[in-house]
Amino acid sequence: MNKEQIFTGQDDLQEALESLHTTLVFDPSDWAVSNRKAWIYGIVIGWGDVLESVAKAIGWTDETVERLKKYHNAVEAYRKGTEQHSNLYQLFQEIFGFELSERSHDIIEESIGYTLIHEGVPLKKIVQIAKAYYDEHEWARDDIPYCFVTGLHNEGLI
After folding, report:
1. Helix locations, the chain, DSSP H
2. Alpha carbon distance 125, 11 (integer Å)
3. Sign of the C-alpha dihedral, residues 91, 92, 93, 99?
4. How far apart are CA 152 and CA 148, in angstroms?
5. Organism's domain of life (predicted)?
6. Measured between alpha carbons, how far is 58 from 40 in angstroms, rounded to an integer?
7. Considering only CA atoms, which of 136, 146, 142, 129 is closest in space to residue 92?
8. pLDDT given at position 110
9. Structure confidence by residue, pLDDT tens digits, 109-151
10. 132 CB contacts (<8 Å, ≥6 apart)?
């Protein structure tokens, strides 16, 4: 599968999640009556503090609740990754002062981006570290991905 197909699939998934989210939020159903809808709602939107009362009303076991939380966390991680992906161009331009090439973006994203983001390293910190390395090493300025990878390596993040 090529990269374009993967990104199209991610865009389709994001659109599907947003549509499902909107449908569930505005659905007037009584969630305690509809086990399936409550399950889907919990995965896509999350129950937060009321999960215990919903789980009790429906009769979910602790294992079921844990599985629901796990699935919801996976959806949130996906959303966060998608948001970070779209923010990389903007953040790079803000911090570096010029646009990131498509080639550099792809290399950075494939090599370090999602791994660090999913480990909880904020995208802004990633870009700031790369900028610091870029500023300190004039000879490396022709290779932006090198600045990212080496800067993050020097910080002990990769």
Report:
1. 3-25, 35-44, 51-58, 62-96, 102-108, 114-118, 123-136, 144-154
2. 25
3. negative
4. 6
5. Bacteria
6. 13
7. 129
8. 67
9. 766 665 666 566 777 787 888 888 888 888 777 787 877 778 8
10. 151
